[in-house]
Each structure stands twice: as C-alpha cells, then as structure tokens.
Specification:
This protein is mainly alpha-helical. The protein has helices at residues 4-32, 39-57, 64-91, 100-120, 147-169, 171-181, 183-188, 193-219, 226-241, 246-266, 279-296, and strands at residues 128-129, 138-140, 143-145, 221-222. The protein is globular and about 55 Å long. Keywords: Amino-acid transport, Cell inner membrane, Cell membrane, Membrane, Transmembrane, Transmembrane helix, Transport.
Length: 310
C-alpha cells in the first residue's frame, strides 16, 4: 500500500497519453464513423517529426528549453500533414464504400507509415534516443515524478481544456457537432462537411503529436513501431469512455492507464498469479478490459455519442 500513490501517479500519466491519442479516434469516428487504425502511426510520426527538428534543424548544444517548443511545432506539422493527406487520398474516396474497405485501407496505411519512417531512420529499427529535460525527479505527496513527465502533466489538461472550448464555443466546433449528428442536414444548413472532417483529422493529429513528444520525453527513446500497440490501447480507451464522446476518450484513457498500472504492480504479489503481473502481461490488460466493456457496457462509461444514420 505504500506504493499506491506512486502507482496511481504512474497510471494517470500513462492514461493521459492514451487519452490524448484516443481523442483522435473518437473525433473521427463521431463525425464519419471511421475507425482510423492508422492513428497510432500519426502519434509515431509526430515523435519522429520532433526528433528530426532536433537532429537536423537545430544547432548542436541547443538548450532543451529552446528546442522543445520547436520540436513540438515540428511534431504537430508532420502529424497534421500526414493526417490530412490520409483523409484526402486514402479515406475520402472510400466514404461511400462498404465499411470494410476503409478499415483495410487504414491497416495498410498504418504499415506503410511504419515502413516509411524505418526507411528514413534505419536506426529506428531498434531504439532512437530522444532528448531529455534535465533536472528532477520531484517528490509530491509520496510519489516521484520524473522531469519528462512534467510536460505530459501540463500538456494533457491544457489540450483537453482547449478542445472543450473549441467544440462548445466556436462556430467550427458547432459545425463539428452538427456534422456528427446529421451530415446531410448540416450540409443543407451551409456547413462545409468536407472542411469539418479535415479539421477533425487535423485536431486529432495535433493531440497525437503532443502525445508522441510526451512519450519521447517520458521514456527517453522512440522507434517506428511505438504507435501500433499504443494506438490499439488508445482505441480501447475511446471505446471504454464511449466512442464518439470526446470527454469519455480522456476519462477512458485515465481509467485504462490506472487499471493497467495497478494490475501489473499488484497481481504479481498474488500467490499463483505472479506471472500475470509481469511486464509482458501489461500489454494484455487493456484488451481484457476492452472485452469486459464490450460484454457488459458496450456504450462505454459516458455513453456513445454517435447518431444513428441508418
């Protein structure tokens, strides 16, 4: 029990990262009812966009405090460009197609992005070092917070507050709500639904890019496969919170992160079950939770917010 505060903090940090990526899943699904399984790779290319700025555009010895905003900007630009390109050339031509077609396209795009990054960064086949913030760690309330985690602690709530304001208070946000509710009626009312869909992809990519930078700062390394499993977990978080519900995506991510962390930490202490608390099982708990949610509450914790367009 002495470790509980630390494990809760670890779970909240991990869950915040899941939530940032889950927002992209739930926004796109809420508007076009598409599961963009390449969204984990948008997270990954954001991290590589940041490291590209650090390695090739900044002078050697640049302070991390100067480099970090520029790296974040590079991550956002790369992720947004990839996401908009995917929407325009991979998903938009398939809008009227059976749902299986864009799903297969998304999986193919995911693999293509992985291989493209590997081709540009052959060293990413193993692990590529990510610049770190110096200082720390810091102790708060019996829990230790690493310096790299501070970026995530700040970025996650700011991102969520910005998204809530954008969706609820801006004209474009209201257009997104109208398109999610009934795209045909929204178009008749003067809403440019194509533009709204592009904005949804772009916003999701921004949050994924922030998550990619946060992951590099947290773990100190990145690789070209880092988005695959995390993307699946973020999708689990979106389903857990209620697919199409942007607040549910963040809450689902937090719940998932806490469950995964606590399960890995404490199941290892139960006699006869210690093997299920190993690190290899940490990847499994998210999907066990997904199965339970689909069985007992398929609409998610906060309820699914997707209109029936049948």
């Amino acid at each position: 029990m002495n470790e509980l505060p630390q494990q809760l903090v670890n779970g909240l940090l991990l869950g915040s990262m899941y939530g940032l990526v889950a927002i992209g899943y739930t926004m796109v699904y809420g508007i076009v009812q598409l599961i963009n399984f390449a969204h984990g790779e948008i997270f990954m290319v954001g991290a590589f966009g940041a490291i590209t700025v650090h390695l090739y555009l900044l002078p050697d010895g640049t302070s991390i405090w100067v480099a970090l905003p520029l790296m974040l900007l590079g991550a956002v630009i790369v992720s947004v460009l990839v996401a908009i390109g995917a929407e325009r050339f991979a998903y938009r031509p398939l809008r009227g197609a059976p749902r299986l077609a864009p799903l297969i396209t998304a999986i193919g795009l995911s693999l293509a992005l992985q291989q493209a990054v590997w081709a540009f960064y052959p060293e990413a086949k193993s692990k590529l070092a990510f610049p770190q913030i110096e200082g720390g760690p810091f102790s708060i309330g019996g829990a230790t917070i690493q310096t790299g985690d501070i970026f995530l602690l700040i970025a996650a709530p700011i991102s969520m507050a910005f998204l809530a304001y954008f969706v609820m208070r801006t004209r474009t946000g209201r257009g997104m709500q109208a398109t999610a509710q009934d795209p045909d009626t929204a178009k008749l009312m003067g809403v440019n639904t194509d533009r709204i869909i592009v904005i949804a992809f772009a916003l999701g990519a921004v949050f994924a890019a922030v998550g990619g930078v946060a992951s590099g700062l947290k773990y100190g390394q990145i690789d070209f496969k880092m988005g695959f499993i995390l993307g699946l977990k973020a999708f689990t978080a979106a389903v857990l919170g209620g697919i199409g519900n942007i607040y549910g995506a963040m809450i689902g991510g937090l719940v998932l992160g806490i469950v995964e962390t606590l399960a890995t930490a404490y199941i290892a202490d139960i006699p006869g079950l210690h093997q299920f608390g190993s690190q290899s099982w940490a990847e499994v708990w998210a999907f066990i939770l997904l199965i339970l949610v689909l069985l007992f509450r398929p609409q998610g914790l906060l309820g699914e917010r997707v209109a029936d367009r049948a």
